[in-house]
Amino acid sequence: MPSIPLHPRPSAPRDETHNPLPDLLQTPSGLALLELQGTINLPAQDASQPEDEPTESLELDPFSATYETPIGKLMFPDYSAQTPTDDIKWMKRAYLYVGKYQRMTGEVKKLPKPLAIIQRRQKESGVEGTGEELEVVEIVKYKLIFKNRPEPVNDA
Amino acid sequence: MSTQSTPSILFTHSSAQRGFRLLELPPDLAELLASNDPPTLQLKSSTQSQTAPSSSSTTTPVPDHVNLCTPTKTYSIRQVQSSNSLHILTPSTGGAVRKHDLSIVGEGTAEEEGEEDVDMDRALNVTGTVTSIAKCGSTLELHMPPEGFSAAGFLSAAVRVFGEGVEWDGNGDGDADMQGDEDGTTRRILDELFADIPVSQAQCESGWAEMCGFVIPPRSGESLTSPVSSHCWRPTAGKKLQVWKMIVDGAVLQGIDLGKQFLVRDLWRSVLDDDGNEPFPRPLFEAVVRRIRESGDGAGGDLKWASIDKDGCVRWVGATYLEATAPSAGSAISESELLDAWRDQLPEAWRDDVSLSILPETCYMRPDPKTVCFATEADRQKAKKNLPTDDSAAAKKTRNWHELFKNQKRQKR
Fold it and tell me: Keywords for this entry (chain A) (predicted)?
């Protein structure tokens, strides 16, 4: 079997979308890790397209085939952009609100070993690929972890 | 609630899920990847047909495993399932979120639903959006067995054996002239051969040099046959010994001092017979010279000049002799017999260096106190595996549940 190359750097250009996460969690590619106990149940994808909004979503998103389902909100209550980088107390507390009435408490953790995020390298169009190629998109050193059950919160 | 006033980040799930794998990086690999000019790594797997019948199948746990190779190191990859799900997030403009759906997460939007133009970020008090674009239920862990990986087993299984009974037509036509061209072809053949060996390039190279592997490139005008491994050979121990014997005899005849620098071409001429016929292929001769020469000469490079590394060579001759004459416990020879024969293989001046203690301990076994025999790769693995006798203790250290309970299950039956 031929060997498969794993390129150490991604071929695709960086995503320039504004990254709202704390600096520590930001990576050059923008990718970050969130660990969750349990799964996120989503509505069946094809059924969720409401009849009255197709044109609007088309305007909003050039890739009309993709849409995002809101799950909740992430919050770092002790973090502020002004916090000096060596002050890491804020990492101890993070919230993930799921819907309106549930909240999970978690934290930002340094990974024991960094994780490489790997994907299949996109073939340049027109070039007939000779074989599969992989690339390291990002190396992440921190993760957001929510390992506790959600607790109810009163929203009012 | 007070926290509701802190700015928050909208967390969404994207319908455009992407395929990612997570690979845990050991410190040395993380460092390598973070360096300025990281090398391209290779994922290599062995073809099942090659490993299954070979002796190396005992050394490798699964036949169709995949190894990750840096230029010099090899790691085995193991997939580890996680009960938690790992989401990969990426910043998003939030543009693909339907406003209708936002009422799920936020207060406020319900009342403002009429006003389409209201800024979503402000309405929800969010500073931005991150979206989950992939979910990974497992990570890939890398392992390096303490004894390391050896290419030898894979290489031996992949190439042809050059021993007694192999036809060799040495009519003495090739004398150094087309060397450059041949070197290029040889390199190409080796690269292709190593691509199928699931360990790193450097380990392939050293394993190849260790076994004195050599390539007989197709004669000019002939094309490469497929697979390229049909051009690749490894000599038997007996053949290596025969080459060595002829080198020693030739050196004596021509007055070449093997311990000092000599022209490799002169040494080659010394082994040719009177009509210039080659007793064995020149690439085999060169492989042997490379194996025993002073490594300071820059192994793998140009082989114009060489000098023999005496200590390494004496050791090599001893081990090769043992492999040739006493390959298994059944054919073990007495220690004194080995030492005598070993001395006879060496140039006069080196005879005093012979001693069993200079042989690496992994290279021989003692079936009984008086005799010795060669330890094959399989024997060595067995010896290693016997060291940690308590299997379950080793398994307990792993996080892999299958391994943890495998032994218990076996005992119950």
Answer: Cell cycle, DNA replication, DNA-binding, Nucleus
Question: In chain A, what are the domain boundaries?
Answer: 21-38+65-150
> Which among B9, B95, B139 has the least Cβ separation from residue A74?
B9
Residues 226-265 of chain B whose Cβ lies under 8 A from any Cβ of chain A: none
B357-398: per-residue pLDDT in tens? 888 888 888 888 888 888 877 777 676 665 544 454 555 555
Which two structure tokens, joined as six digits, stand for A43? 């509505």
CA gap B153, B139 in Å, rounded: 29
Specify the DSSP class assigned to residue B340.
Answer: H
The 3-state DSSP class for residue B230 equals helix
**DSSP tag of B112:** G
User: DSSP class of residue A61?
Assistant: -
Q: What is the ipTM of this complex?
A: 0.83
CA distance B242 to B317: 11
Apex CA B46: angle with CA B222 and CA B76, to 5°? 140
On whether any CB of chain B is under 8 Å from the CB of A4, the answer is: yes
The 10 Å Cβ neighbour count of residue B269 is 13
Tell me, which fold does domain A21-38+65-150 have in CATH? Immunoglobulin-like (2.60.40)
Asked if pLDDT for residue B64 goes beyond 90, the answer is: no
Say if CB B170 and CB B283 are below 8 A apart.
no
Distances (CA, A) of B190 to B49, B68, B208: 20, 20, 9
Q: Do A65 and B18 count as a contact with CB atoms less than 8 A apart? A: no
